[in-house]
Design a protein that fits this description.
InterPro entries: Kinase-like_dom_sf, POLO_box_1, POLO_box_dom, POLO_box_dom_sf, Prot_kinase_dom, Protein_kinase_ATP_BS, Ser/Thr_kinase_AS. The protein has helices at 8-12, 73-87, 119-126, 131-150, 201-205, 213-228, 238-247, 260-269, 280-284, 308-312, 316-333, 336-341, 418-427, 432-438, 523-541, 543-546, 555-573, and strands spanning 16-23, 29-43, 46-53, 59-66, 97-102, 106-111, 153-154, 163-165, 171-173, 180-181, 373-375, 382-384, 388-389, 456-462, 467-472, 477-481, 486-490, 495-501, 508-514. With 574 residues, it is an alpha+beta fold. It folds into 3 domains: 8-111, Phosphorylase Kinase, domain 1; 119-290, Transferase(Phosphotransferase), domain 1 (Orthogonal Bundle); 357-573, POLO box domain (Arylsulfatase, C-terminal domain, 2-Layer Sandwich). The strands form 5 sheets. The chain has a 7-stranded antiparallel sheet, covered by helices on one side. A 6-stranded antiparallel sheet has the order 1-2-3-4-6-5. A hairpin with a 4-residue loop joins strand 14 and strand 15. The longest helix is centred in the N-terminal third of the chain and has 20 residues, at 131-150. The chain is globular, with a radius of gyration of 26 Å. The two termini are 48 Å apart.
């Protein structure tokens, strides 16, 4: 087996197979093999990679700890404690511990793979988050912390880099390398540990010991960092940072707008006296955390902030008004299922007197975001590709269709201009900046004029190298290339359309040809189109292996998720 502890750049170019020897009851040995994938990160002396079981094709994260660093008894006991604590935990907001095994060189810990990285990467890309995003994430972090504390576990290293994001942007607390389990109520720990920017003052003092309150302090630092963009006590020098923490020296920047309720919450949490910090329940009852908080956020926030229309639906002053308006719309139009999917009017999915946000049937093409490997026919090496994200969408633009102007009731002669009508209706609900984007008409002629409009059901973002590949609900597949050209394939007619814009022209030039006979100068793009299409189709067939306990958001949230994705896609085209 190749040594997995070599240079990171060399490792990513190597095909590494990790073998696990499993002994059955009859002493017969079974060898399980895992293909090591992309490098995910490192902490302490361990490195973490994506791994794929060659037996089940299931992906996970694999943490590799070299035995060479476990020669001292203290290091060994620390690893045993981490495994013992993490193995005992089972909660939706805690990274799943799969199992652990070893060989002569390393100890391997298999963990749940969180495909959307951590809040640390999100802040690096977005700089800072909006209140509604912070509220959603903090709500989930608190749920995880409450579970840990009920199990008498102190995390002791709560930071953005240890707050992982799942496929549906659900927070997962991870890395229990510094975690401690209390044996009895009131017990104090005295080990000085943590990450400099997030460490609590009582840990640095080390006089009276510390307990659960250190996690609450770190939570306050997390909230500040998400809203401001950097930790409150951060300095270039660790000693200066520790001094500022001990003296509680931090400020709120004048050039960054932050609500008074957020300031009050942060100030109350970042209290030098542990006993004066609010409890987790008190944080949840704070005015900053009041109002309607989305259970999950749309995937589009990985790229750009949520729109004002999305944020507005969760503001207290508009929520009651929104519910009444939505209820009236439902009662005037009939069942949502009837409007969106043409179900029988006698369906039992009716609403009672108390309004409940309706659930929707979303696209069945919801896939895990996994590493894409493309086989190179020349050297048979596996080339690791970029991340994949799936977008859950609704089958109707609920909230933008009125009974009087219902596009689903249009005659076929009217459907020719359906797309432009839909974008016109949609743009009326956007901010002025968004309107400029959505008013632009698409010149692609692949949507059948006699069909309803198509929407994206799967997509793969490989824009760092080639472009964005996708599959539509009608079976068409396409690629938006980095050079702003577009290619789309319609399987029913075996027709491919290639769209490019000539220099100094506002008109797109469309070239049509078959899948088998195409211009030789487009050979590379045709290959990419077929690779993306085949891969996404394969992922669709294997989605049950990669998805467990998937719960969809409300129809309103899914609609907004699709809006956010469209906003990002149009923005990329400008």
């Amino acid at each position: 087996m190749n040594n997995p502890n070599s240079n990171n750049n060399d490792e990513n170019n190597q095909l590494v197979i990790i073998e696990e020897k499993v002994l059955k009851q009859n002493s017969e040995a079974i060898i399980k093999k895992y293909m090591r994938g992309r490098f995910l990160g490192k902490g302490g002396f361990a490195k973490c990679y994506e791994a794929t079981s060659l037996e089940t094709k299931r992906t996970c994260a694999i943490k590799i700890i070299p035995k060479s660093i476990l020669t001292k008894n203290r290091a060994k006991q620390k690893l045993i404690s981490e495994i013992k604590i993490h193995k005992s935990l089972s909660h939706q907001n805690v990274v799943i511990f799969e199992h652990v095994f070893e060989d002569k060189d390393n100890v391997y810990i298999l963990l749940e793979l969180c495909n959307n990285n951590t809040l640390n990467e999100l802040i690096k890309k977005r700089k800072r988050l909006t209140d509604i995003e912070v509220q959603c994430f903090i709500n989930q972090i608190i749920n995880g912390l409450k579970y840990l504390h009920q199990k008498k576990v102190i995390h002791r290293d709560l930071k953005l880099g240890n707050l992982f994001l799942s496929d549906r942007l659900e927070i997962k607390l991870g890395d229990f390398g510094l975690a401690a389990k209390l044996e009895f109520d009131g017990e104090k720990k005295h080990t000085i540990c943590g990450t400099p920017n997030y460490i609590a003052p009582e840990v640095l003092e080390g006089k009276t010991g510390h307990s659960y309150e250190v996690d609450i302090w770190s939570l306050g630092v997390v909230i500040y960092t998400l809203l401001i963009g950097k930790p409150p006590y951060e300095t270039p020098d660790i000693k200066t940072t520790y001094k500022r923490i001990k003296q509680n020296q931090y400020t709120f920047p004048d050039n960054i707008q932050i609500s008074e309720s957020a300031k009050h919450l942060i100030t109350s949490i970042l209290n030098l006296e542990p006993s004066r910090r609010p409890s987790l329940d008190e944080i949840m009852a704070h005015p900053f955390m009041k109002g309607q908080i989305p259970k999950y956020l749309p995937l589009a926030i990985l790229q750009c902030p949520p729109s004002q229309s999305y944020i507005k639906q969760f503001t207290p002053e508009n929520f009651q008004q929104k519910n009444i308006a939505l209820k009236n719309m439902i009662s005037s139009q009939g069942l949502i299922q009837s409007l969106a999917f043409g179900k029988n009017e006698n369906s039992k999915n009716t609403l009672g007197q108390t309004f409940v946000p309706p659930k929707t049937q979303s696209s069945t093409n919801i896939n895990s975001k996994n590493a894409l490997f493309i086989q190179n026919n020349n050297n048979n090496n596996l080339e690791q590709q970029q991340n994949i994200r799936a977008v859950a969408t609704t089958k109707n633009w609920f909230g933008y269709l009125s009974q009087k102007n219902n596009p689903f009731q249009m005659q076929k002669s009217q459907q020719k201009n359906f797309t432009s009508t839909l974008f016109k209706q949609f743009s009326q609900n956007q901010t002025s900046s968004e309107k400029k984007i959505f008013r632009k008409q698409s010149t692609l002629s692949t949507l059948n004029e006699q069909n309803l409009p198509a929407w994206v059901v799967q997509w793969i973002d490989y824009s760092q190298k080639y472009g964005l590949g996708y599959i539509l609900c009608n079976g068409c597949s396409g690629v938006y290339f980095n050079d702003a050209t577009k290619m789309i394939f319609e399987p029913s007619s075996n027709k491919v359309e290639y769209v490019e814009r000539q220099n100094n022209s506002e008109q797109d030039v469309v070239v049509s040809f078959s899948l088998q006979e195409f211009p030789q100068d487009l050979k590379k793009k045709m290959t990419l189109l077929q690779l993306f299409r085949n891969y996404l189709k394969e992922q669709k067939n294997r989605r049950k292996l990669f998805k467990r306990n998937l719960k969809f958001t409300s129809i309103k949230q899914q609609q907004q998720q699709y809006q956010q994705y469209l906003f990002y896609q149009w923005k990329q085209q400008q």
